[in-house]
Amino acid sequence: MEEVLVYGAGERCASCVNLPSSEETADWLQAALSRKYPERDILVRYIDIFGELEGAEAAFASKVIEEDLFYPVVVYQHQIVSEGNPRLKDLYAVLDKRATA
Q1: In total, how many domains does the chain have?
Q2: By C-alpha distance, which of 1, 100, 83 is closest to 42?
Q3: What's the CATH code of the domain at 25?
Q4: 28, 30, 49, 82: which could form a disulfide with 61 (CB 3.0–4.6 Å)?
Q5: Beta-carbon contacts of residue 49 (< 8 Å; ≥ 6 apart)
């Protein structure tokens, strides 16, 4: 199974007021990826940066907070794919590259 992580918070960042929430973004990405890649088992998982986290997820959530990254932050295989309002085209490019590797 492949996993796309969406780091964010219940409260929207100041520059993201008119955009969907991080949780809504995760749901939207899951639906879009399921349509685009029906043959691949891709799970989109929302991670609340202010929640109780451990290990690598806690470390990355701290990075999002400390470096003032615009969330949601979309991560695939430990690589930041986007900050703020994600573009499907960018995520598709990363997933397509992985499929051909």
Answers
A1: 1
A2: 1
A3: 3.40.30.30
A4: 49
A5: 7, 8, 9, 61, 64, 65, 71
Read off the pTM.
Answer: 0.92
pLDDT at 83 over 90: yes
Cα(63)–Cα(101) distance, rounded to whole angstroms?
A: 29
Q: What is the pLDDT of residue 1?
A: 92
* Cβ atoms of residues 72 and 7 within 8 Å: yes
Rounded to 5 degrees, what are φ and ψ at 36?
Answer: -75, -35
Q: Is 80 helix (H, G, I), strand (E, B) or coil?
A: strand
Cβ neighbors of 40 (< 8 A, separation 6 or more) are 2, 33, 95, 99
Exposure letters 41-77 (e unless 16+ CB within 10 A, then b) = ebebebbebeeebeeebeebbeebeeeebbbbbbbbe
Q: Tell me the residue range of the domain where 88 lies.
A: 2-100
